[in-house]
Amino acid sequence: MKLKLNVWRQRNGASPGQFVAYEANEVSKDMSFLEMLDVLNEDLMGKGQDPIAFDHDCREGICGSCSMVINGRAHGPQKNTTACQLHMRQFKDGDEITIEPWRAKAFPVIKDLAVDRSAFDRIIQAGGFVSVATGNAPDGNAIPVPKENADRAFDAAACIGCGACVAACPNASAMLFTSAKVAHLALLPQGQPERMERVRKMVAAMDAEDFGGCTNHGECEAACPKGISLENIALMNRDFVKATIGKRPERAVSGD
Amino acid sequence: MNLEAKSPSGPIDKKWESHKFDMKLVNPANKRKHTIIVVGTGLAGASAAASMGELGYHVLSFCYQDSPRRAHSIAAQGGINAAKNYQNDGDSVFRLFYDTVKGGDFRGRESNIHRLAEISVKIIDQCVAQGVPFAREYGGLLSNRSFGGSQVSRTFYARGQTGQQLLIGAYQALERQIAAGTVKAYSRHEMLELVVIDGVARGIVTRDMVTGRIESWSADAVVLATGGYGNVFYLSTNAKGCNTTAIWRAYKKGAAFANPCYTQIHPTCIPVSGDHQSKLTLMSESLRNDGRVWVPLKKGDKRSPDQIPETERDYFLERKYPSYGNLAPRDIASRAAKEACDDGRGVGETGLGVYLDFEGAITRLSEAKVAEKYGNLFEMYERITGENPYQVPMRIYPAIHYTMGGLWVDYNLQSTIPGLHVIGEANFSDHGANRLGASALMQGLADGYFILPYTIGNYLATAKPGKVGTDHPEFKAAEAAVVARNQRFLDIKGKRTVDSFHKELGKIVWEECGMARNEAGLTRALQQIPALREEFHKNLNVLGSADEMNQSLEKAGRVADFLELGELMCRDALERRESCGGHFREEFQDEGEARRDDLNFAHVAAWEYQGGDKAPRRNVEPLNFEYVHLQTRSYK
Fold this sequence. Notes:
The structure holds 2 protein chains of 2 kinds.
Chain A: E1 3-9, E2 18-24, H1 33-46, E3 69-70, E4 73-74, E5 96-100, E6 109-111, E7 114-115, H2 118-125, H3 147-157, H4 164-168, H5 175-186, H6 195-208, H7 219-223, H8 231-245, H9 250-254
Parallel strand pairs in A: 1-5
Antiparallel strand pairs in A: 1-2, 3-4, 3-5, 6-7
Chain B: H1 15-22, H2 28-31, E1 35-39, H3 43-55, E2 58-62, E3 80-81, H4 93-103, H5 110-130, E4 155-156, H6 162-180, E5 183-186, E6 189-197, E7 200-208, E8 214-218, E9 221-224, H7 245-252, E10 257-258, E11 263-269, E12 292-296, E13 313-314, H8 316-320, H9 330-342, E14 354-357, H10 359-365, H11 367-385, E15 394-403, E16 406-407, E17 420-422, H12 440-463, H13 473-492, H14 498-513, H15 519-539, H16 551-575, E18 589-590, E19 593-594, H17 598-601, E20 603-608, E21 617-622
Parallel strand pairs in B: 1-2, 1-9, 2-5, 9-17
Antiparallel strand pairs in B: 3-4, 6-7, 7-8, 10-16, 10-20, 11-15, 12-13, 12-14, 14-15, 18-19, 20-21
Helix pairs in contact in B: 3-6, 3-12, 4-5, 5-12, 10-11, 14-15, 14-16, 15-16
């Protein structure tokens, strides 16, 4: 099939960008979306033109590298599917496709479709972990975890950190990402000792980046390729309130 | 070349314990004065960097991805083995050790493998404590399954994404250390050179993939955790960015490369659909628990599968290996599929595929039950192929999945260059000539959490490397070499893209050094690869410049190294005149079954770079089997 593409081209973060029209004339329905771009890039290089830069790695929908807005939707039209797993049979001959990078102040463009998502790493650094140094662990079966909790924790932990939730949100909020990590650890016994401190610190770190606030649009959940639920945001909000109201002055907890 | 394994003496189950005591320690107050570079942030790299940071070392962590969490360990589906014996089914450390030695077709080092089995139990504890959401039973305890034909249930798993969950655990530990200031992390940084001063590894040179800046980093020790080299085949289940550059640069600086010809082919991948194909997708091996593998009996039978009656189907794995059937080990199942296709009985448009049929399972168990077990895999298959596997049999074909070869390391995980340590898939490791399912995650985390943090201390305390700055002439020379190399790629201004060379290399290596190898083919490849390499350096076309994000330039450097590695693989495969594990030489077989030659080849082949165009030297580390006696693998 033949397609018309409008692709965002931007030399680097300091230069302005613009849409450039391309024609992809030999697209097979069996190609993945990124393979379609590979073929276009080979074609561009043959003509001496700079290929389109985009992030990608595993191409199996699990590493979370790929990050493009396709016809206005983060990762494109297919539900629960990353751009790398989207196949061209979802499109038809003659379609016009617009491809843009994630659009969010907290994710500045590096080049073309590649953006800087290091803000997510900094949110995790603030508290998205259990403080257990190597070698400290009790036996794996020492603390039983009810299956339902383990399954719910897994559902939250399935987040791949791609940032589609931010790209889809009209406010570019990172609530779904942050809450998925908060919920993952809050639902497990191992996460309890630091539960309140974690949510406080992670929310503060999120607010310190250039993400917007959550106004319950739900676009994040709709765009998430891993089906991360809005319930996580509710859990995080509840924990955050508890953690803020119940916060004691630092000295009082030290016990001396 | 000194290939002393440095395995401690004493009974096998006491070696690691006594070695831990014998190793020298670094005083806690002195640890922060030692800088350690860790390249790669997969299971091995992230766990090592985090653990060493916790101990108080000053760690520099590098990865080419935009975040450490994206390293390719993330894509592992199946699970992680551990000799916990939670299921009371007779598992033990010794059994896991035994299975790994045998599964590796007696081409691994006993002392290392036993240590791996010992440590396996601690890994699970550590990961649970980090909050890894392993599958659990209703009573709240950890769930296990049997995996890859194992006779005990020792595999821990987190649905179909065990790798991602374990990696996130290690990544979180790493991020915690970054926040604590013990680890400094550099994403989108690619290591392009190893710096060796007076025979000792002292640092690396990296390229910032955003700005193009070339930079030197000095340290007291360097750790490579940069994964396998499966992308030499172009099409593999590896991530697109996986490459050999870090270990290849080290090889060219004097680190021995062991057993490059040991590559693992996974039988259940989605077949290639056309020339545009950029990578292959694995379907979990667990599908073979309920799916039946078949091809038409008649050659060139183009009927749709539902039109082929039962009597005209060849369930070739069940026919050839009645006791293991569809669960035959990876190498055996892969070769059998290739044989069926070579015989003109392959299915699908390309003829390179076999059916994996769930009709029987759906009838026996119901569609709902099958969906419960494999629903996510069936969905993934349908997304990629557009076919519904509940109605039409899946088509599968083998693909490169893992590389057992890698840089040679001793018992302390140190390469032949003092100060250079290699962990995870990047080393030649514990899997011998064939890795068992669910053992890769175990090895990566054993190396990173529980072995390297001890052995690195011993190195620092005994070698006392002393300080060196990046203003040392060797750093300047290495930087200049990196700059010149990149500039050369840009200056060729030829006609062909990097990918076109990579695809061509992949075809040669797959054809001649893939599932089955023979002398004629390998000899042919040893002429084709150098010729292709020569054309690459004359006719490559890389646009843009070196001081910006330039993905073609990144690929050019990696493919240049693959073009050299591919030749070494073929050379190694040619010299290993036997069949073992993933290395099947057609000349050495008994009616399709691999024939090992323990008299002449019970050894590790460690290749030593000789410079320029000189042929590399093949050195040998003999392998002794004191605890698991040499025997022929049989799955009939």
